[in-house]
Specification:
Layout (H helix, E strand, L loop, with lengths): L2 H26 L7 H24 L4 H36 L6
Helix pairs in contact: 2-3
């Protein structure tokens, strides 16, 4: 294997690990608890990918300008939603810890 293929394999493994951790966090929460930004970002990215594939295969154009703006926009929503999801987990852990304090005698 070349150096580039090792780097690519390492990056894919890191991405897969991150996605599995995020999948566990999403699995542990109900759909009502998911942040709105996360839902908008996920649906937006999936919709943009499907639209991009449709435009590329059926219409045979790239539509580069429109997709160049759509991908980062929905990616930003997704990142903000992930940060909210992680921050929400920290807050709930702190609340549980605060509620389990011993009362002074």
């Amino acid at each position: 294997m070349t150096h580039i293929s090792h780097v690519v394999a390492y990056r894919f493994a890191a991405i897969e690990n991150t996605l599995s951790l995020l999948k566990e966090k999403v699995k542990n929460t109900s759909m009502k608890k998911l942040p709105l930004f996360f839902v908008i970002g996920a649906v937006g990215i999936i919709g943009t990918v499907l639209l991009h594939v449709f435009v590329a295969l059926v219409i045979h154009t790239t539509g580069r300008g429109a997709f160049l703006a759509m991908y980062p926009t929905f990616a930003a929503f997704l990142v903000i939603g992930i940060l909210q999801l992680l921050d929400n987990d920290k807050l709930t852990a702190e609340k549980v810890r605060a509620n389990n304090k011993r009362l002074p005698k």
